[in-house]
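Please, why this fold?
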Amino acid sequence: MTKLKTLQRMLLAGASLAIVAAQPALAQEFERGGTLRIGISQMAPSPDPVVTTFGVNWLTASIACEGLFATDETWTPQPMLAESFEYSDDGKTLTVTLREGLKFQSGADLTSADVVASLERFRESAGIGASFKGVTESIEAVDERTVRFNLTTPTPIVPGILAGQQAIILSPASLEGASPTEAARSLDCTGPYTISSYMPDQGATLTRWEEYQSRSEPSSAAAGTKHAYADTIQLRLMPEASVRRDSLITGEIDIAMELPTDFYDALQNDPNTEAVVVPNNQSLAVVLNTKDGPMADVNLRRAFFYALEMEPIMLASVGNPEFYTLDPSWIPDPNSFWYTTAGVPEGFGSPNPEKVEEYLAASNYNGEPIRWLVASEQYQKHYLPAITASQQLEEYGINVEIVESPMANYIQARADSAQMDAFSSFLPTYVDPTSIAYLNATYPGFWTDPTKMELMEKLASTIDPDERKAIFEEVHALAYDQFPWVKYGTEANMYGIRAGVGNPARVPARGYDYYNVAPPAAN
């Protein structure tokens, strides 16, 4: 038996055990019916997740759409639209068999040709799509239910990549006129909810699709059974956090997403609300332009890192030390197999003035402003860390110009190496390091160091999990030498729910699985 076939059996066996282990927390069933009303901070111009690496595009699609695989609560890929998958003996092909009788929400049959068309588009997109392209020579429809991936090398990463939200399968009608950079006009998918309306300046409404064909395995994050408890899911755009909080307390909404931690006491003291804290949610960071401008100088990037004191930055953003850690790992969830602190400099979190002076002297920096992009809709996670960090940097003569703009402008500007030197961002846990957008050479920041590129190719083609972990630790250490980005710490996610909301997410892997969340009975 080849290593890939052994890995395939281990992956499915281990993941199945993980799903069963998660059952006690999900054992309670809830009544179907009602409307789940969710207050959100921002909306993308389109619900299509393929056209951008920015995660806000993925929310609506995660409720309405599906891919061949999905991630469970242990960050392990599980079959979703796939019935089964198998590697060839030489590991150079991966064959996926689709579940029988699947349909799109429009009523059209799902065929292997639709899978190929959707994934060819994903393959040409930025970020994770580029990683997928790097390990696939071609994708072909063998018959109506069989898809074959011809791989550039034996690699275990394809199921993990295809478990990402950008790898959704769309109908031919949705794909008409769409491209890797041009959004689909509508999302005709296979998921438990259809998108009834989508207005970027107001919100979205999703309606349960009664003909949805759910998997039968126990629910675990995006994998297994999708209960579709609510008749309707409303995503209501409420950019101001205080408005989301107040709307929750008054009963206008059932879930208030992304709340600052200083709202914790108000929600806990109200008998009708609860503050839900999800630990180890994501890294807060700034991505640096390694291609053009002053930050392309590695010594300036090193000086940048050693000038920062992370505690005040995290405190400015999160507001309460109980809701963050100064953890330096690029894998924020310690429960992930990939968690590591390899290469982290001693004294992470504290400035080192001697090293700042050393690296500034070795750089070509002449005091020109560092253009730091932030999205106006992300005041807590973008603007506040940037303003706090800029004050620290300016003590050493590193001048920062904060450029604040609406999300759409921010996304456009950060993709152009001539328009930015740094931009605020954050990083969740991914199923596999090859899926981390920051590590892709096409991701804004454009880190194309030859050693990194070689290590990433090696990581993608190595089968043994322990060997892969060792390679990733080399990448992690290299990032802490060259600083294509700088992490401040790991934040918990806090959001609020009304009394009666059933099965709210309490672990990072749950993400946006609102199809498994039940509205209060009164709704």
Q: What stands out?
A: The longest strand covers residues 273-288. Residues 12-27 have pLDDT under 50 and may be disordered. Residues 3-26 form the longest helix (24 residues).
